[in-house]
């Protein structure tokens, strides 16, 4: 990869490799050394966006979930969206009731192993596969029952299409959760979907704001503000607190991109957005892609032979094992596999709790709009929808480190045998901690022993503060210069007011007028006549 290669070049190269034309729904995601997720910006250099040395680890993901995934033009696009939603199901992002979960898992089973065959699929065969963060024997029996009796004869493409149609109807479809806290300190997950902005708390969707009701989004430090204008000119402000300023900025940028993609009619309507009301302060960002309506119109014009799909050829993510590798998982005893998975879930719970353990100062922000315990909900937010039988608690979706599948399994088993819980937090640390990042951190620690030094996030905050101060100084000097010029022009004009008469009669003004202004005016007039005469002669 060339040093000046833009993100668009890398993305186009990847889509060409996948033979993908409906590519606007997808993006490339990476995690920086501070474990903060980012979407690769296509208008910027890839190398400059990475805060580590190559090789870089990135992931191909669905960035904008289709409003109607069944309406996608090509099967290859539907298949890739299917893989993403299957991953969401595994990570607990697509949370649903038990009956819906059983049907979704049965569709996956039918798509990947085909019709039920008593000779190939013995009793309890569905327990060999991992569809969700947590399983129960009752759920596994229900999955097998649906697979045997209701889905026989469906091709992989048909099962995937039915899976997408069912997933689209769920409350958490398209949710990419951002952990936050409301003004009361209650944990919540914020997300942007094809239909609007949602807030999830417990097992309920407590707020849903349509895109046409969102008037503005901004952030200051860790605080995220969402301005909403609803019926009868009712205006409210939703206020939430992210774990870090970087996480808050990522939340803001995701909101700007999602609103532009789903709300606007044309990409020419996209405008640069500032995170602050003052043009010299805050971050500025502009969505650079096409909008959903343009993507649909472009998809309708695709006329080519459907590309061949190699369903078994795609390497599964480390963090989301494909069920096509079921026989490998089945070699682990059932009780051992459950113990391993329970230890992973304990790690997830500890990670989720630690992510929200920072005390949040209870604050009010005008019409600050908080969780379900506070009064005065807006009309569209009053509909509290129960999304599942249990609380929404997704695993952190981290990037996979390329490792051999068998080594991962041995690592899980050895840790379980030694009594050490295998948490996702450790996996995230191993994935974010590249050798280059560790070397850089070691150099910083060596330069500042004992003091700890400035971390990348702190250094970035200092740089932002310095740039903000410099911008303020430049703007102040510029405004003073403009005001001075305006005052000179007004005092030298024929405007006759008491204020300007008093100024003109002062000795300082008369000295300035005769020694500086008049010679400068004659010089400009002479130069202007010379230029005009030169133009006339030519």
TrEMBL record:
It is found in: Cell junction, Adherens junction. The chain crosses the membrane at residues 469-491. Residues 357-377 are annotated as: Disordered. GO terms for biological process: actomyosin structure organization. Pfam families: FA, FERM_C, FERM_M, FERM_N. Keywords: Cell junction, Membrane, Phosphoprotein, Transmembrane, Transmembrane helix. It comes from the Eukaryota. Its main location: other. Signal peptide: none annotated. Residues 1-266 form the FERM domain. GO terms for cellular component: adherens junction; cytoskeleton. May be involved in regulation of cell migration. May regulate cell-matrix interactions via its interaction with ITGB5 and modifying ITGB5 cytoplasmic tail interactions such as with FERMT2 and TLN1. May regulate ROCK1 kinase activity possibly involved in regulation of actin stress fiber formation. This is FERM domain-containing protein 5. The gene is Frmd5.
């Amino acid at each position: 990869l060339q040093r000046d290669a833009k993100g668009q070049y890398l993305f186009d190269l990847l889509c060409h490799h996948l033979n993908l034309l409906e590519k606007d729904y997808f993006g490339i995601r990476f995690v920086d050394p501070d474990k903060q997720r980012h979407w690769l910006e296509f208008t910027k250099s890839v190398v400059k966006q990475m805060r580590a040395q190559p090789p870089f680890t990135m992931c191909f993901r669905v960035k904008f979930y289709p409003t109607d995934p069944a309406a996608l033009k090509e099967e290859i696009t539907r298949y890739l969206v299917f893989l993403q939603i299957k991953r969401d199901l595994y990570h607990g992002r697509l949370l649903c009731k038990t009956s819906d979960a059983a049907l979704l898992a049965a569709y996956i089973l039918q798509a990947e192993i085909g019709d039920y065959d008593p000779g190939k699929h013995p009793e309890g065969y569905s327990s060999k596969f991992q569809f969700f963060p947590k399983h129960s024997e009752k759920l596994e029996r229900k999955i097998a029952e649906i697979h045997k009796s209701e889905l026989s004869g469906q091709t992989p493409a048909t099962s995937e299409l039915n899976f997408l149609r069912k997933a689209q109807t769920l409350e958490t479809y398209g949710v990419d959760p951002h952990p936050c806290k409301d003004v009361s300190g209650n944990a919540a997950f914020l997300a942007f979907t094809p239909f609007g902005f949602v807030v999830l708390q417990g097992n309920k969707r407590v707020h849903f704001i349509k895109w046409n009701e969102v008037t503005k989004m901004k952030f200051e430090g860790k605080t995220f503000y969402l301005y909403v204008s609803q019926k009868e000119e009712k205006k409210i402000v939703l206020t939430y607190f992210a774990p870090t300023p970087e996480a808050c900025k990522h939340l803001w940028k995701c909101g700007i991109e999602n609103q532009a993609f789903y709300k606007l009619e044309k990409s020419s309507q996209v405008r640069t957005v500032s995170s602050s009301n003052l043009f010299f302060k805050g971050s500025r960002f502009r969505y650079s892609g096409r909008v959903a309506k343009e993507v649909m119109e472009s998809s309708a014009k695709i006329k080519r032979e459907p590309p061949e799909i190699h369903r078994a050829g795609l390497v599964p993510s480390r963090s989301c094992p494909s069920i096509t590798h079921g026989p490998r998982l089945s070699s682990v005893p059932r009780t051992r596999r459950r113990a391993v998975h329970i230890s992973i879930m304990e790690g997830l719970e500890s990670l989720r709790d630690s992510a929200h353990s920072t005390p949040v100062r209870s604050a009010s922000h005008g019409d600050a709009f908080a969780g379900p315990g506070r009064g005065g909900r807006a009309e569209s937010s009053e509909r509290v929808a129960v999304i599942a039988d249990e609380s929404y608690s997704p695993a952190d979706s981290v990037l996979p480190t390329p490792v051999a599948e068998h080594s991962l399994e041995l690592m899980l088993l050895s840790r379980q045998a030694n009594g050490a819980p295998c948490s996702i937090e450790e996996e995230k640390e191993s994935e974010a901690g590249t050798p280059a990042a560790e070397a850089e951190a070691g150099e910083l620690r060596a330069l500042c022993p004992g003091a700890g030094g400035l971390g990348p996030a702190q250094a970035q905050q200092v740089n932002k503060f310095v740039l903000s101060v410099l911008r303020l100084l430049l703007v102040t000097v510029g405004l003073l210069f403009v005001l001075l010029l305006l005052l000179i022009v007004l005092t030298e004009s024929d405007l006759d007011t008491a204020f300007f008469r008093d100024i003109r009669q002062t000795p300082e003004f008369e000295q300035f007028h005769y020694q500086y202004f008049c010679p400068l005016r004659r010089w400009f007039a002479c130069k202007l006549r010379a230029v005009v005469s030169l133009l006339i002669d030519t």
